[in-house]
Amino acid sequence: MIADRIQLLVLASVAIAVATVGYLRLGDRALNRLPQAWARRLVPWLFVGPALVAVGLVLVFPAISTVVLSLLNSNGTAFVGLDNYTSTLSNPVTQIALRNTALWVVLLPSLSVLVGLTIAVLVDRVAYGALVKAALFLPIAISAVAAGVIWTFMYDYQPPTANQTGTLNAIITTVPGTDPIAWIINEATNNYALIGATLWTQAGFAMIIFAAALRAIPEELQEAARLDGASEWKVFRHVTLPFLVPTVVVVMTTMTVIALKAFDIVYVMTNGRYGTDVLSTVMYRDLFTAKDNGVAGAVATILMVLVVPIMVFNLHQFRRESQKA
Amino acid sequence: MKVRSGALALVSACLVVTACSSSDSLKREKPTAPASVVDAAEAAALQAAGGKKVGGKVTMLGVLGGPELDAFKTVLAPFEKATGVDVQYEGTRDFAAVLQTQVDGGNPPDVVSTPAIGEMSGFAEKGELVDLRKVVGSDLLDANFSKSLLDTASVNGQVFGIFDTVDLGGLIWYDPQTYKGPTAPKSWAQLQAWAKQTARSGTTPWCVGLESGAASGWPAADWIDEILLHEAGPAFHKRWQEGKEPWTSPEVKKAFETYGGMVSDGMVYGGTTTALSTNFAKAANPMFASSPGCYLLQQATFMGGIITDGFPNLQPAKDLDFFPAPDFNPDYPAIRSVSGEIVGMINQTPQSVALVKYLATREAGTLIASTGRWLSPNKNVDQAIYRDPFLKKASGVLARAKGTYSLGNSLMPQTEVDAFWQAGLDYTKNPGDLDAILAKVEATR
User: Fold this and answer.
1) Which residue of A76, B41, B107, B297 has the fewest CB atoms within a 10 Å radius of its CB?
2) By C-alpha distance, which of B399, B413, B427 is closest to B8?
3) Which helix (H) or strand (E) holds A246?
């Protein structure tokens, strides 16, 4: 059984390599037969062709068909116009999800920047910095589902009379007179609890990006400022931070996209119960529970419309940076 | 019986799935089927395949994993050995989504096994499932299954599924060493009178856990469903499940309130916040603490396995036992609820037909019973095969029942079931909002 699979895998890898080389060889030879001007114009397309086909097949086509589905009824047999949009947007569940998604979009990027930047700046000044960095970076390697399970334990609730098995409640109940909090059930805390768990998985990423950006800042500038009598805060505020603005933008936009896509941690920890739904969990239920392709497509389209401008901005920023470099 | 289109899904899926997968440390003696039973099953399998080794394979999508899947595979093994057919079982907790994806992708499994009867009924109405009366034969079905079980998995006169495993619901589990209340209460009122008296003395009587991952709330929904069956009677219960009686009707409201009389601060261990945040599989833990935090737990037959997995030193009957839920309404005495998995066929191949035929035989049913995990749905199975004390007792309770019924939420569309689970949680959290909560479920119909 496994031998079969390995054989298949090897065969497939060889086939793909042969096909790629063959494609380029044959394409090149075909172009060489054309007049020079034509060949020069067509060469780039020879190289981007496969990528374009792949993107068209797995990205553009599904995106368009999702938008089309969102205009059809639940099983795609009749055109219903914008009904799916009006019905989902007037649904209190979607409204709560929109509210929560907004909360995620505000909190996750700003907290990631705050935590990532603070630690990246401070960590270089202490001897055990590498250890702190490693500790903050490790959660990136943990899958979101596992992170959800881990934080479910962290937020665990036991009645006040029993031993607290959840880390957070064990800590807060050491203060006399404090009752444990049901973090993911209590509506005053649960959305923040979920965002906190996601922050734990993402802050390390922000920190690494900031640490790299800090290295790129010419040390002479900071030193000159210090010699001129600037306080550490002023050095950071007026010398370091302006250099970091593009990095802040990159981290912010990346985190905003992650916040908009939030699904796994919410699905594992609450599945949207007690007012913690986000757009993706609403879409998942519309698709797999209610089996309504139309409404699910509408929610997906709303999500896409929210993400696209940020992606465009991000790409734009990236291009400007790479031109500068 | 007209089964509504749509889907149940995880309700009993959780009953079975979560139950099972949480029991990885199987300390209880693992019953093995007697050789004669296995031999008989092999003979039955060969006959089901038309007397020859057909070979090939069957793909099967189900909800089992861990020790439960191992147990189920011991039932499939004689079939594989006798017919040479390779049964490729794929277990998933997200059954509805996986099946839908495979069907949409044009690559459905040959056979499915699931507690989601409502879900399967939806597939059957769309003509995706094979009529088992035609391929398995009415003789075999009518000889081995009660009419009510066949009707439960029928739509438009076609049988789309046969039960392969059965759980008995509505049991009250207790520790005979510490529980001093009535073990054969005449009525729910009598049991609750004891519970209230215990609560007044400062100890919470009931152990409750409603958390179950993405399917949280099903323990509440199952019990409210059961209460409604007992209080309002099977006829009303059926009309409600079929959507002919609204969620906002006084009977449904009363069932929620009866549940609320049990699951409320002071009556449940740690209060309702603890009930909401405790996983159902760990609900019984305070019962076995050095000074018990609670004495009674309501759950179906499979809970015995979960508790003894967690506390392997417990002796069945001596340290852990159950009694069936007392009557809630003298008009409807001794009625019981059952849930279970049904097997349905999507692709009709010689191998899949042979497998479903085999699972319908008395010999395969006997093997199911001898796994010690499930009751067999097959009416010709010798009751002496149950060696597990809990199953033995449960099969006796079923035999004495005046009627057995499926829980409504195993037959409803999944959207409604989800809303029901949610309603169970919301009501536990905010009992004052009952009317709004019920209106919300009604809106999903």
Assistant:
1) B107
2) B413
3) helix A241-261
Nearest CA in chain A to B422: A273
pTM: 0.81
pLDDT in 10s for each residue of chain A, 325 residues: 678 889 999 999 999 999 989 988 888 888 888 888 888 888 888 888 888 999 999 999 999 999 998 888 887 788 888 888 988 888 888 899 999 998 999 899 999 999 998 888 888 788 888 888 888 888 888 888 899 999 999 999 988 888 888 888 889 888 888 888 889 888 889 999 999 999 999 988 999 898 888 888 888 888 888 888 888 888 888 888 888 888 888 888 889 888 988 898 999 888 888 989 999 999 998 888 888 888 999 999 998 888 888 888 878 877 877 776 5
Q: How many C-beta atoms lie closer than 10 Å to residue B92's C-beta?
A: 17
- CB neighbour list of residue B331: distance below 8 Å, 6 or more residues apart: B233
Cα atoms in the Cβ-side hemisphere of radius 13 Å centred on B80: 13
Residue A180 DSSP symbol? P
Cα–Cα distance measured from residue B336 to residue B397, given in angstroms and rounded to the nearest whole number:
8
Please report the number of interchain residue pairs, chain A to chain B, with beta-carbon separation below 8 angstroms.
50
Give the distance from CA B42 to its chain's centroid: 28
Q: What residue has token string 């169970």?
A: B424
- Burial (CB < 10 A; 0-12, 13-18, 19+), residue A277, is buried
Give B279's strand partners: B211
How many residues make up chain B in this entry?
A: 445
Cα separation, A115 vs A207, whole angstroms: 8
Q: What is the ipTM of this complex?
A: 0.77
**Contact B88/A at CB under 8 A:** no
Q: Which two tokens stand for residue A14?
A: 């060889």
Judge contact between B73 and B35, C-beta under 8 A: no
Give me the amino acid identity at B100. Answer: Q
Helix, strand or coil, per DSSP, at residue B355: helix
**Identity of the residue in B9, B97, B270 whose CB atom sits nearest the CB atom of A162:** B270
Q: A291 to chain B: which residues are within 8 Å by CB?
A: 7, 100
User: A234-254: string of b/e by CB count within 10 Å (b at 16+)?
Assistant: ebbeebbeeebeebbbbbbbb
Using the 8-state DSSP alphabet, how is residue B211 labeled?
B
> Rounded to an integer, what distance in angstroms lies between the CA atom of residue B326 and that of residue B398?
14
Taken as a whole, chain A contains a residue count of: 325
Compute the nearest-CA separation of A280 from chain B (Å).
14
- What's the farthest any 2 CA atoms get from each other in chain B? 68
DSSP letter string over A134-166?
A: HHHHGGGGS-HHHHHHHHHHHT----TTSPP-S
Q: Which of B9, B269, B273 sits opposite A182 (nearest CB)?
A: B273
| Rounded distance between C-alpha atoms, residue B256 and residue B236, angstroms | 15
What distance lies between CA A295 and its chain's CA centroid? 24
Judge whether A267 and A194 are in contact, CB under 8 Å: no
Cα dihedral sign, A96-A97-A102-A106: positive
Contacts of B431 (CB under 8 A, 6+ apart): B260, B264
Q: How far is A291 from chain B (nearest CA, A)?
A: 9
What's the pLDDT tens digit per position in B38-56? 888 888 888 888 888 888 8
B181-B183-B185 Cα angle (round to 5): 90
